[in-house]
Specification:
Elements: E1 5-10, E2 17-19, E3 25-27, H1 31-36, E4 46-51, H2 62-74, E5 79-83, H3 89-99, E6 106-109, H4 122-134, H5 136-140, H6 142-145, E7 148-151, E8 154-157, E9 162-163, E10 172-173, E11 181-184, E12 187-190, H7 197-206, E13 217-221, H8 229-236, E14 245-250, H9 261-270, E15 273-277, H10 295-300, E16 304-305, H11 311-323, H12 328-336
Parallel strand pairs: 1-4, 1-5, 5-6, 6-7, 13-14, 14-15, 15-16
Antiparallel strand pairs: 2-3, 7-8, 8-11, 9-10, 11-12
Length: 339
């Protein structure tokens, strides 16, 4: 029997750390090391391992991930596993999902416990990711599933996965939808297919983002009694501090403090500005509340509605749209598809 050909691309992260002389964990392990730690992989797939980088995911950039997507798009394999740190896993997975449209499984995985701890989860997560990539149901539905994240024996859609705790082993979840599949014994148990119309519609629009110029996007989170000084700085600075767009983590169903409404409206007139729920995701209101800081007023003022996207993912999508050179109207259409 011919085993599936699985490419493992290692970027670094906790899964690839080892202790230095002081006991502090440092980047050091490569893809071959990760694969060698899981002998059972050889029974599932023909593994080809490649070390792409050895950095913490907090230091990855959009350019790194665009280059990674280009590499994945050109691979002649049956599945791809990307290992990286957990700090930005949800953003990496979502960006790859926006950039890739392949009919093979593409999976991002990582570790919460470093290799020096008792029961590190990296080897188990890598084994689970390869098992998912080799599974007949997953392979048959690869395009419908899109890019996936596999952590702690659960499979998540890239659009929905979030890191919901900074340190716990069960740090990842998809609060809006739940997992797509679960691993039990040596089986992958399907649970759901994701709703992907918005991603599918975005693919054609975003094709030009490959090789495009970086487009920094500011992320501003609104809390109680926020005075708006950061937004004021963006509005008043001649080059907008270098930013080409902004995402606002808004309150409730899409609200901001009344005192900052004039600033927010000025910002939206200068830069594509997306409103996303600071609650972490879920479709926002569109036409319920009135008043100057309501969703009705903000939408009329030209704010782009982020739909169900978490602010972190709204920022990824906006940067990708700007990198592709999309106009404000087209950007609004892309976001509108997310609800």
């Amino acid at each position: 029997m011919t085993l599936p050909r699985i490419k493992v691309l290692a970027l670094g992260g906790t899964i690839a750390t080892r202790p230095d002389a002081s006991g502090a964990m440092q980047m050091g392990l490569g893809a071959d090391d990760l694969v060698a730690a899981v002998p059972a992989l050889a029974t599932l797939a023909a593994i080809d391992a490649e070390t792409v980088s050895k950095v913490g995911s907090h230091s990855l950039g959009f350019d790194h991930l665009h280059a990674l997507a280009t590499k994945i798009a050109a691979l002649d394999v049956d599945g791809v596993i990307v290992t990286q740190g957990t700090d930005t896993l949800e953003e990496t997975a979502f960006l790859l999902d926006l950039l890739l449209d392949r009919d093979i499984p593409v999976i991002v995985t990582a570790a919460m416990r470093n290799p020096a701890l008792t029961s590190p989860d990296g080897p188990g997560n890598l084994l689970a990711a390869v098992r998912v990539a080799c599974d007949p149901w997953v392979r048959a539905h690869a395009r419908a599933l899109g890019v996936m994240a596999v952590m702690l024996d659960e499979v998540y859609a890239a659009s929905d996965v979030l890191k919901v705790h900074p340190t716990r082993l069960n740090a990842f979840a998809a609060p809006q939808t739940g997992p797509l599949a679960a691993l039990v014994e040596d089986r992958v148990v399907p649970l759901a297919l994701p709703v992907r119309e918005a991603i599918t519609a975005a693919h054609a629009r975003l094709a030009a983002s490959a090789g495009g110029k970086a487009a920094p996007v500011a992320l501003c989170w609104f809390g109680l009694d926020e005075p708006g000084f950061m937004i004021e700085a963006l509005v008043d600075h001649p080059d907008r501090l270098g930013y080409r767009g902004a995402v606002l983590g808004a309150m409730g169903g899409g609200h901001v403090p009344e005192r900052v409404v004039p600033l927010v409206e000025r910002l939206a007139a200068l830069l594509p500005t997306v409103v996303s729920p600071r609650a972490g995701g879920g479709p926002m209101l569109r036409q319920t509340y009135g008043g100057p800081s309501s969703e009705i007023a903000l939408r009329k003022a030209g704010l782009i509605w982020g739909g169900r996207l978490h602010p972190l993912k709204a920022r990824v999508l906006l940067e990708t749209c700007l990198r592709a050179g999309l106009s404000r109207d087209i950007i609004a259409e892309v976001f509108d598809a997310f609800g």
